[in-house]
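does this look right to u?? MTE version
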Amino acid sequence: MKITCSNQSQFKDHEITDETVFNQRRKLLKQMGFLGAGSLLSSPSQANILDLFSSDKPQNKPAAVMQNLSFIKDKAARDELTPEAKVTSYNNFYEFGTSKTDPAQNAHALTLNPWNLSINGLCHKPFELGYEDLFNKYALEERIYRMRCVEAWSMVIPWIGIPLATLLKQADPKSNAQYVAFETLKRPEEMIGQQSRLVGGGINYPYVEGLTIEEAMHPLTLIAVGLYDKALPAQNGAPVRLVVPWKYGFKSIKSIVNIKLVDKEPPTTWNLSAPSEYGFYANVNPAVSHPRWSQAQERRITQGGLFSQQYIKTLPFNGYGKEVAHLYKGMDLTKYF
Ligand code: MTE
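got this back:
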């Protein structure tokens, strides 16, 4: 399904601080209907992607890890869009198996329509959205974001979606709503990873995630329904997923059925599975190694073969520090990892 959008810009120029918001090309994209052909948008171009490399600081580089790696030196290449074919074929979605190619092979089994997304919990106006609502009810925006997986690979992806804050404001949170809890669909008959612990990577389903209310209301936090001008493919978390670009990819929960405002820090899947390895916050942080590998660099998936080896230095908060570092002021990020 092609998502066709208008060209209006929601953001006035002065609201987009040049080196701070990665997606200068950020647009208001309005769903005009499910027209089969011809988007009003051209593909996102590299020229519009901001250069964050120049403000890059020397990273923590364990010499043994960093030697022998070829780094992308060219600034444009660093933030080149990851080709659509790779975004949609190299995935993590354990509900469909644990190998990178499993989701693209198995996720077609998932029924996307009808879908029901509930927004509820500590709010005055809980509501539900059906499949069509996700595409028709809200102004859709394009956001080009880096995505950094905790496994140390990364991509640059043009998402289409709705700011999460828009949905939360509609629900009218109560004053004691301090966190937001997210839940993925549980439907073992369509999700083979939910049928056996072996296929599903040994995690308990449904997959759950959480954010603080400040993180959830942050303008960068997106509820994505599309990428590359099309509705999300199932393997990327159709029909609706979270995208939090300054956090490791596992926070960006896929195929969401429930968003709940709560007063306590909610449980999160990877923290439950391995608490010493994955924290609740999971902000991208090159200075804090995973217990089993360094996070100082990442393999950027760009052109070339699926497993092409091109490395870049990882940036604190994935390069979005100017927008989000204030959320963690005074916190010891080695403790709240
Ligand atoms: N959401 C669910 N429900 N199940 C998962 O296994 N994997 C996470 C995240 N969201 C995952 C999930 C991880 S580890 C990453 S890196 C991203 O999805 C990958 O998103 P992508 O496959 O669209 O690149």
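DSSP finds nine helices and 13 strands in the chain. idk if thats expected tbh
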